[in-house]
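Protein of interest.
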Amino acid sequence: MPRSGFVFDGVAVAAAAIVALVPLPPEWIERFYSNGAYPAIDRAVRALTGPVPFTVGDLLLAVALLWLAVYWVSELRSPRGGSLRSRVVRVLSRTVAALALVFLWFEVSWAFNYGRVPLERKIPVHAERTVPARVDAFADHAADELNRLAPLAHREHPTDDAFEAELFPRFSAVIARLGDRSIFPPPRIKPTLFQPLMAATGTNGFTDPWTHEVNVDASAYWFERPAIYAHEWGHISGFADETEANLISVLTCTTTPDPLIEYSGWMLLWFNLGKEVHVKHHLSALARADVKGILARYHEQVNPGLEKAQRVAYDRYLKGNGMKSGVTSYRLFVRWLVGADFDSSGLPVVRPGVAAAPP
C-alpha cells in the first residue's frame, strides 16, 4: 500500500480518537448538535432509508462483513503484496481505519446526543417526594390504571400505522417540552434479520444509530408495541439516554387519549419498577394475565447465556458513552414521575429556557 494509504488510515484513526477522548460541552451539543445539525442529519438519513421496506442497516452490516472477509483473503493471498508480514500490517491498518470511519459516522449521525444536557438538569425534582413510601403509592396508582384500562385496551388491536399516527401529536409535545426544537416524524417499524437474536436476548426494540431505523420485537403483544415504539422514537428524536427514552415513552403514552396506548405506557412503567418497590394494590385478572403472558414469553424465548452476554456488553457500551448507571438507567425515570411537578396537560415542569415552542 502506498504511503498515502497509511496516512489516510492514520488520519481516520486519529480523528476517531479525538472524538472519543475529547468530550464537547453539553450546552454546546444541546444547541449546535441536538438542536442544530442533528435534525438535518436525521431528515437526510431517513429520506434515504425510510422508504426501503427492509432494514437497510441489516444489509449494510452484511455487505461490510462480506467486504471485510473478501478483502482479508484477497490481500493476504496477493502475490504482489510483498512479504506476509507487510500484507498483514497493511490489512490491519486498513481494517482499523474502516472501523474508525464507522465509529465517526456513529458519533456524527446520532451518538453525540449522549452528551447533550441531561434531563436531570432540565427537570426539577423534589427529593422529599422520592422517598420509598411515595414511590410505593405511585406503584399502587400504576396498578389501578392498569386495572382500569385493561378491558378497554383489549377491545383494540390496531396496526402499527394506526398507533404511530395517534402518538405523533402527543410525542411532539413531549419532546418539545424536554428541549427539542424540531419535529421528528414517526419512523417506520421495519422487520429485521436479527429478530431471532432480539427474542433470544429479551430485546424489545432497537434503533439503528447509523441508518435511523427502528425495529420492534415481532413477538411483542399488541398492547406492548406502542410503548416500545415510543421509546425507540425517543432515541430517534435525539434522546440517547435509556431512562430519558423511557420517560418520553411513558409521558407520551399515558397522556394520549387512547386506552390501548395508555395501557401500553403503564405496562412499560410496571416492568421498570424496581424490586425494592412494594405494591399493595392487586392487579385485576386481565392485567395480571397480560403481565404473566409477557413473563412467559420471556422465559420461553430468552437464552440465558445470550441475554447475559448482551446485557454485559450493553452495560459497558452505556457506561462508555457516559451513562454511569449502565443498564440500570432504564428505570431511573420513575424518580422524575414521582418527584417532579406536572402541568395540567400531564407534562413535567422544566427549568426556564428548556421547553421549545409547542409544535
Observations:
- The radius of gyration is 22 Å.
